Amino acid sequence: MGVMGEAFTQLLIPVAALVGIGFALLQWLLVSKVKVSADSDLNNGYSDRLIEEEEEGIDHEDVAAKCAEIQNAISVGELSLSPSLWFEIPEGQPHFCLPSIGTLASSWVFLVPSFSSFSVQLRASAPKVSLALITQAVYIATYANARTTLEARKGVGKAFIVAFRSGAVMGFLLAASGLLVLYVSIHLFSLYYGDDWEGLYESITGYGLGGSSMALFGRVGGGIYTKAADVGADLVGKVERNIPEDDPRNPAVIADNVGDNVGDIAGMGSDLFGSYAEASCAALFVASISSFGISHDYTAMSFPLIISSVGIVVCLGTTLFATDFVEIKNVSEIEPSLKRQLLISTILMTAGIAVVSFFALPSEFTLFNFGSTKTVKNWHLFFCVSIGLWAGLVIGYITEYYTSNAYSPVQDVADSCRTGAATNVIFGLALGYKSVIIPIFAIAIAIYVSFSMAAMYGIAVAALGMLSTIATGLAIDAYGPISDNAGGIAEMAGMSHKIRQRTDALDAAGNTTAAIGKGFAIGSAALVSLALFGAFVSRAGIETVDVLTPKVFIGLIVGAMLPYWFSAMTMKSVGSAALKMVEEVRRQFNTIPGLMEGRAKPDYATCVKISTDASLREMIPPGALVMLTPLIAGTLFGVETLAGVLAGSLVSGVQVAISASNTGGAWDNAKKYIEAGASEHARSLGPKGSDPHKAAVIGDTIGDPLKDTSGPSLNILIKLMAVESLVFAPFFAAHGGLLFKLL
């Protein structure tokens, strides 16, 4: 038994979760004090002399009124998508999400008879919990966009605080609510299972499946939505009509802003929520069949939840460094402040892990290791969690190096635009492939160290280590689209060039942090998937996975192909939707008199409808591929072939995801590098509208579906297939391999 008692553990976890939720609500309250109305300056207690609006800017009251109008248009656009994901669907909305959830719930009942209907009912609620959190996060992001724009009039520091606090609302709400719901679920399940801890934590694996199911719709559907609008807006607006980004004359501009929230906020939030749920479930399941579960040591059993609890407290303190302790005064201080968040949270969390490992765990214990047991000491688990935590930091910083225009890789891509779009594409692809090297080594080292010290449990807690600072990671990531939309609103509201420069600076930093967030998501997905793979092998009763066996090898090579099939589907979906968007934007420019001159308003609603319909319709085929592959492979070919499929998709998917995300991010920032013209080299490639700039825009447009749809969505492919296989493992082990039995 560890030093920490069961009573203290029972108190620590819910209190930490409630503190996190309370902190999120406090941040929301502080953001809400910025009023989006004509008398916002009076309501905020600022006199006109404190508003640093230049003389060429429009009247202050008109600015607030326009910002409110634009925010309302974005909110309406988002409501056209989110209600279709709820159970109470307005008449006429598509119903694509519900049959998928219903099918999964039905499958639990018929294919996993060892689970009670009581547990199935509870686990089926996980998608609704996840969806509620993601929808709230999207609402908060929309709520913050215009407020960030208005605060930019008072200085870049004020705008930064609003954007970051809004991101913190999402980060802490997801991290704390996810922990609290898992804690409550475990206690509700214990009413049914009693002392059967193995059965209890076996059924808890459905929590991870529920979270990942919603992540599939958030990542894939949201990615298709945002990139259909973005590509359509850029191709016609910037390339053909030569008008600025976020110009209010562009009919797709509102759909583009909606997409930033739907794709980046909902997508990343649901992705990391799913990773957290799956990593926790994998660790709890392995622990339940180890000495923790056998001896009913509640505190040691709750080690994964205690790590998450400490992470919330650490992230809370880290957030204060950005919002209260250090004031942003210059544009150059924005990106370093965000990077400090990662470093500070990692250092503090390392100390927290050391304390938890010493007090919550026995000095020595045994862990399940594929049919045998492995003797482990508490300091072994400290290194396992820490190696995951620091591997995440390495991946984040390497991602920043390859995607930030402050460093030579992106500057080289920008320079290649001198000779046209073709060389830009070649350089960008090369950068993406090269950016895979160090993250893969970091993941490999984390896997080797954690597995050597604590078997599959070590890998599961290493994944949790990487996700332990999820609140800070999500806050930094959500800051990006909030700042991006703030800049768009400033452009549409006709605010001065000085204000637009401030929002552009916020956006440029956010672009890099979004890429860092994707790196974290991919790295954690790799560790989570491997942990789930180990749990699947254990539950399926497979002693060894021998790649020389034909059954395994065919699964391995097919699994390695799946990320390419999946990417082809999502890329084509974005292309098809973007084609419709381009045609609609062209139609409006050609048929609405006075639109180009600014005398008429475009029809924003039609473009929003195109993105909404495309995202809900086009996510069905890739979603079906992910959810049906394990069922078909396990039922027809058996658990050994399915093990090969999971291993192949993991190894292949991680490489493709990192490459695609970083290639797209580099192309995006190469374009911004030319547009900003901050250095002599950048000015030699510009200005906007020059041939190098047009080549950069084409590269950015190609990269959009790579970095925001196909790349990040591969996380869901490898995680959802693994957790689905784990849930259905008893059925596959007992009844799978029908085809080989017939032969």
From TrEMBL:
Location, primary (coarse class): membrane
Bilayer topology term: Multi-pass membrane protein
GO MF entries: diphosphate hydrolysis-driven proton transmembrane transporter activity; inorganic diphosphate phosphatase activity
Subcellular location: Endomembrane system
Domain of life: Eukaryota
Enzyme Commission number: 7.1.3.1
Coiled-coil residues: none
Pfam families documented for this protein: H_PPase
Keyword Transmembrane recorded: yes
Residue spans crossing the bilayer: 12-31, 168-193, 301-322, 342-360, 380-398, 425-449, 455-476, 520-542, 548-566, 716-740
Keywords attached to this entry: Ion transport, Magnesium, Membrane, Translocase, Transmembrane, Transmembrane helix, Transport
Cellular component GO terms held in the UniProt record: endomembrane system; membrane
Enzyme class: translocase
Record-given protein name: H(+)-exporting diphosphatase
Organism: Vitis vinifera (Grape)
UniProt gene name: AVP_7
